[in-house]
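Blackboard transcription, Thursday session:
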Amino acid sequence: MTRFIIVRLLQSFVALIGISVLIFLLVRASGDPTMLYRTSMSTEEDIARIRANLGLDKPLPEQYWIFITDLAQGDLGESLLGQRRPVTEMIWERLDNSLLLAVPAFLLSMIVALLLGVLGAVKRDTWMDNGVKFVAILGQALPGFWLAIMCILLFSVYWQIFPPSHMGDFSHYVLPVSTMAFFLLPGMLRLVRSSMLDVLDSEYIKMARIKGLPERIVIWKHALRNALIAPLTAAGMILAMLVTGTVVTEQVFAWPGVGMLMLDALFSRDFPVVQGIVLMVAAMVLLVNLLVDILYAYIEPQIRYQQM
Amino acid sequence: MATTKLMGLDKVSGVKRPKSIFLNLTFIIPAVVLLVAMIMAIFAPLLAPYPYDQIALTDRLMPPAFMEGGSTAHILGTDLVGRDILSRLIYGAQISLSVALMVIVITAGVGTALGIVAGYLGGRTDGFLMRVTDISLAFPAILIALLFAATIGPGYWTVVIAISMLGWAPYARLIRGEALKLRETDFVAQARIIGTSPVRIMVRHIFPNIINPLIIMSTLAVGMVILTEAVLSYLGAGIPPPAASWGNMVNDGRSLLDVAWWISTFPGVAIGLVVMAGNFMGDWLRDKLDPRLRQI
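(Written on the board underneath:)
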């Protein structure tokens, strides 16, 4: 197990290096890198300063060394605009807004996915199961951003029940949280339903039934507990969906979170901010996948030997 | 009983097998939708009543023909600068489908090559390639795309490259599994015994046997690619205006919801229809060609 964890740790580290090399090369492949770091207000001195900071007169390996040592010290650079604030600080102050959106959306869709997924699996091939599949098919095909806009059209423009954008009291949360939850739903629903089907087919469930346990306990205790392992191991995939969902939902509802920060930075050509957020999320994604791998290996010892 | 279990057929006995292709609605409807989209894409300049970028300030924000104040000159209405929505939808099909085609050709090619190599050679090559695949699968494509948009700027090829950067991974994983199984078959063993080179075995013996999963995967990928392109264009990191992409058309209408609902609504319906058709077509092909693959 220790060996497994060490190997996985090393792999994640290599992956992070890989992503940093990709970003590093992208910046340099896009022509003159100072173009990404200057604004219309930049003076000759600023450009010289950028050049010195990035070490553009030095050979590539040395430039990479400068880039990576800054990163290792948690320095994601500073914004090009306004007061040139550190990128880490800018991300930090927006992070809780993003979490206020992503966490309730995740919980909501998880609860709905569990209820519908179990229902679909238990009532397999009935009209209820077909209804569940229909929700999944619809959710998979309709673009999330468009659904969110249609919700604004109905609930804010026509019926004027909920406000269309920005943060505020509870009513501001209803539309963003529920549309984002619907965006996450199909993936989770499929996971819960298919792993529940597998579990219901297993010997120990038959055993539990033969023992005479009430169906309620068989399903919600014995079956569900085991069926939850599959969605758990897909936590990496769910995180990827959460990231996408957050960026899109924040854009639609003008929600002042990290996703909006990134998009604003994209349009005002504030490159260090975009780069910083990508690196931060990349590290987060790798960390979650590492934890899931270790957890999975802990639950299912076979994995430790299979995937070395 | 034992053989059906071995072949994995016990799991799929519940699949309803249609008697005739032509009586099966789950095939006909998606096929028609995809065919219409393809015709729109290929013959856009002939079919569209107006050029996609023709501005007519006198015809601004005209509602669809079936509404009061609408006119048959603009069946689906016009946008803020008087461009015809129907024409832009037709040109939008061109972008969606050609991006999908490009991405699928690139990702299927790269993913298949890596998958066969990993599955057939095994060992360290396999271990390394599958780790890279796992990490690519877990990475949010939208981040890579936004990064590309920030460095090389938004555009058609930015979108194609950005989606392809991670899109090869599902192919690699699927094909690797297939190649792994084929490696153990008798015909591959015999080819090896008579001294066929590994490259020739991979190209002539393994590849022809993974065509079915490849076709199924590629069909299922159509919807995914179209959705991703739409999201990127909607966010302003994809196809830049004035080109008509379904994604950026939805964005055009976002701030005009209270006066012109049709600008955002129709392109979203188009995306939903085509993506759903692609997914249904993929499912149908899978049930026909290779029902073992129900998990993908």
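Lecturer's comment: The first helix of chain A runs from residue 2 to 29.
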